[in-house]
Amino acid sequence: MPSGTLLQLLNTPRTELHRTWPEIPESFYGIAWLLISRIEETYGLEGVHELCQRAAEEGYDLIPAEWLFELADIAPQNLDADFLRGSFDGGDLHTAIYLQPDAFADALVEAVRPLEAGFGFRSFFFNARPALVAADGTELLLNYYSTPLASRMTKRWDELSGTEE
Fold first, then answer.
1. pTM for the whole structure
2. 3-state secondary structure string, 39-94?
């Protein structure tokens, strides 16, 4: 994501997002979720609601991005891969996979396709048993996921290989 894009995205009303950006970077959703999640953990849902009320009272259509970063105790310049990886435990990762299966499926298939050695999707995942490991050590075995992640991964695998199992 180009520098400054995250702040622009966070400061754009939902009704205008797709008019401004034909495609919203998938990472935006995860970062927005991380910000609100951290605010909710510290201040509770009442605190998030109060934040919304404060923004409305001060004439904002949205909560200013600067407020979100401050209350989440995150500096935008620190949003690198290591920071983000350490911000999600196994439960968060499982939820993210459930909410954004297409993004995960595409990335996962792209990562493992060079290793497949002629196997089809089901054979490869049954034999290789690939897993994602969250920062807290939680291991999420990918071959145990059913739809929608598995169906999207199967579709992407077939698109790349030009074959179907």
1. 0.58
2. HHHHHHHHHHHHHHHHHHHCCCCCCCHHHHHHHHCCCHHHCCHHHHHHCCCHHHHH
Round to whole Å and give the CA distance between 128 and 48. Answer: 43
Give the residue among 89, 96, 90, 82 at the shortest CA–CA distance from 28.
96
Contacts of 124 (CB under 8 A, 6+ apart): 112, 115, 116
What residue spans define the domains of the chain? 1-87, 89-165
Q: Which of 68, 65, 91 is nearest to 5 (CA)?
A: 65
Structure tokens belonging to residue 76: 């935008």
What percentage of the chain has pLDDT greater than the value 90? 21
What backbone phi and psi angles, to 5 degrees, belong to 6? Answer: -60, -45
* Residue 140 bridge partners (DSSP): 132
Q: What is the pLDDT of residues 26-40, one digit of tens each?
A: 677 778 888 998 999
Contact 28, 62 (CB under 8 A): no
Buried (b) or exposed (e) across 45-57, using 16+ Cβ within 10 A? Answer: eeebeebeeeeee
